[in-house]
Specification:
The C terminus is likely disordered. The longest helix is centred in the N-terminal third of the chain and has 39 residues. The chain is of the alpha+beta class and 639 residues long. It folds into four domains: 210 residues, no CATH class; 75 residues; 108 residues, no CATH class; 113 residues, no CATH class. This is Reverse transcriptase domain-containing protein. It comes from Hemibagrus guttatus.
Length: 639
């Protein structure tokens, strides 16, 4: 029988959360200082220096924090912790009584089986209750002393049981079942994906700057380390962010010394350039490798080093990046993209101007590896022309949304974009790209890429927000309410109604998970009384469970009573308050971030019509003009 892939039943790790205790942190730094005093003063090569640092910090963490075992031991099951010796004996006695009843068929044997069955049910119920009580007490303790472990448990409860794929398809469509073949297929898949053979070689001119050539200071390293997020997975060196964030002056000086050695030598340790690729399932068939997204676990000290260099060169690189590049720059995040796209659709619907859209996804992109970090990039000498604007560089261009006033214009823009992508080693995925038309009546939009017709849809999910061809957000609000209900359902038995968990713990989950899930993308909503009532009803469904009350409770029939009873320790805002406040803030945002040729600043009041004209011109939708030639009519002219 072929070997099966799976997670090891018994995993031994380090109790890194104990570093939050000052006494444990002091012991950790004392062990690290002992190792630091033994290193030679003369600077060695980068690999030997890195080996001493990595082994010393991991050994100090083990000696100060201790180890922990997670998963099942030999012969046990981590998902049935209530299966004790008492339960096993009761179940065994019930089975023996059942077989005796079948063999004899007497009334005494039937009565013995009935009593054994009742006794087993009571024993199992008591064991399960005891395990749930212990789980609640452990969760309450972790919330006070080990927040990282607490939120990790909450995430595991939300995800539920994840099925692993024991078989995958090869490139030829053959189903692979053995461990060696499966690992080999994943290796070949990522090798072809992350190492394309047609990557263009571009030599960048080196910038001469005295600040870049200077040594790395301890203040720079300390500032970057303090910005690391805790609870993240380590790289191949098993160094966790809690280790680096717990370093004192001696540990920081050692890490700074290591970064300067790498800076002067121009090389980095092999562990810094080695990434562990983890496939995470998205949707579709679990046996198809392309249905997984990839994350790469990198060395955290290597991340610190690259972050220091990135902060130094940002002042040199930022002026060279076009204003339309979004995703990793200040004031150009997901919310700005959503708000800009929504304003285009909203303005076009108001003036009865149809918008033809193509949501394009890139299947294969050019890759550039720096210090083990994979970045996707396409840069040509000529660039891509859109109207009067030229895009000379696209960084992290995974997808693109093309807008045009007609299907012919959209097909022309899509053809030029696909041609430039092919020249740069990229390709528009016809299986993941779709077309949609915003209009008051149904309009056909036939788009082709490489002879293949893109499907036309009535709704599309862009940046996790559902946009429809009718320009309404009702379906998206329904999705948000359903997603929040799914969150509550996934944690109902284990968190929401657990008497062992305090109300403060439940409300922290309410504010950290339930409210963000319910109100994601609320900046695009129109807060009518109906929408406000629906959001409040979804919010009260959670708070009523926390308060232990139902809709029939006379003393809590009003939402204010539920909030005052359930959310007494709650210092933040509820879902309705968050939505109303953020919609008000969104009305003051600049809607032109990420749009070609538009100013990225706040505009003075009274210029709404003027800015709408410029926004529509930049999207290629023309200018709204009335019958007499004045702006503001329902007839659109050419831009």
């Amino acid at each position: 029988m072929p070997d099966r892939l799976g997670r090891p039943k018994r995993i031994v790790g380090v109790c890194g959360e104990r570093l939050a205790d000052p006494s444990v942190r002091g012991v950790f730094n004392s062990h690290l200082q002992e190792s630091f005093n033994q290193i030679p003063r003369e600077v060695g090569d980068i690999e030997s220096e890195w080996t001493m640092f990595s082994s010393s910090i991991v050994d100090a963490a083990i000696r100060s924090c201790g180890r922990k075992v997670s998963g099942a031991g030999r012969g046990s099951n981590p998902r049935t912790q209530w299966w004790t010796l008492e339960v096993r004996d009761a179940v065994k006695l019930k089975k023996e009584s059942y077989r005796a009843w079948l063999a004899r068929g007497t009334l005494e044997a039937a009565e013995a089986y009935r009593q054994a069955k009742q006794t087993t049910a009571v024993v199992v119920s008591e064991a399960k209750t005891r395990v749930w009580e212990e789980f609640g007490e452990a969760m309450e303790k972790d919330y006070r002393t080990a927040s990282g472990k607490f939120w990790q448990t909450v995430r595991r409860l939300r995800r539920g049981k994840r099925l692993s794929a024991n078989t995958v398809y090869s490139g030829d469509g053959e189903l692979l079942a053995s461990t060696g073949d499966i690992v080999g297929q994943w290796k070949e898949y990522f090798k072809d994906l992350l190492n394309p053979t047609d990557t263009p070689s571009i030599e960048e001119p080196e910038a001469e700057d005295s600040e870049v050539d200077s040594f790395i200071t301890q203040a720079e390293v300390t500032e970057v380390v303090q910005q690391l997020l805790g609870g993240k997975a380590p790289g191949v060196d098993e160094i966790r962010p809690e280790y680096l964030k717990s370093l004192d002056v001696v540990g920081m000086s050692w890490l700074t010394r290591l970064c300067n050695i790498a800076w002067r030598s121009g090389t980095v340790p092999l562990d810094w350039a080695t990434g562990v690729v983890i496939p995470l399932f998205k949707k579709g068939d679990r046996r198809v490798c392309s249905n997984y997204r990839r994350i790469t676990l990198l060395s955290l000290p290597g991340k610190v080093y690259s972050r220091v260099l990135e902060r130094r060169v940002r002042s040199l690189v930022e002026p060279r990046i076009q204003e339309e590049q979004c995703g990793f720059r200040p004031s150009r995040g997901t919310l700005d993209q959503l708000y800009t796209f929504h304003r285009v659709l909203e303005g076009s619907w108001e003036f009865a101007q149809p918008v033809h859209m193509c949501f394009g996804k890139l299947s294969t992109v050019s890759l550039v590896a720096f210090c083990g970090r994979i970045s996707r990039r396409s840069q040509g000498l000529e660039g891509v022309w859109f109207g009067d604007h030229r895009i000379s560089s696209l960084i992290f261009a995974d997808d693109v949304v093309l807008l045009a006033p007609s299907s012919l214009d959209l097909q022309h823009a899509l053809g030029r974009f696909a041609a430039e992508c092919e020249a740069a080693g990229m390709r528009v995925s016809t299986s993941k790209s779709e077309a949609m038309v915003l209009d008051r009546k149904k309009v056909a939009c036939t788009l082709q890429v490489g002879g293949e017709v893109l499907p036309q849809v009535e709704e599309f999910k862009y940046l996790r927000v559902l946009f429809t061809s009718e320009g309404r957000m009702d379906c998206e609000i329904d999705r948000r309410i359903d997603a929040a209900a799914a969150v509550m359902q996934s944690m109902y038995q284990s968190v929401v109604v657990k008497k062992e968990l305090s109300r403060k713990v439940k409300l922290s989950i309410y504010q950290s998970i339930y409210v963000p899930t319910l109100t994601y993308g609320h900046e695009l909503w129109v807060m009518t009384e109906r929408v406000r009532s629906r959001i409040q009803a979804a919010e009260m469904s959670f708070l009523r469970k926390v308060a232990g009350r139902s809709l029939r409770g006379k003393e809590l029939c009003h939402p204010g009573g539920v909030r005052s009873r359930a959310a007494a320790p709650l210092h933040g805002k509820g879902a309705v308050e968050v939505a109303q406040a953020s919609v008000s803030d969104a009305s003051r945002m600049s809607p032109w971030r990420g749009v070609l040729g538009m100013p990225h600043r706040e505009e003075a009041p009274g210029k709404t019509q003027y800015m709408l004209e410029r926004l529509c011109l930049s999207a290629g939708l023309g200018t709204p003009r009335g019958p007499s030639g004045r702006t503001g009519g329902s007839v659109w002219g050419e831009g």
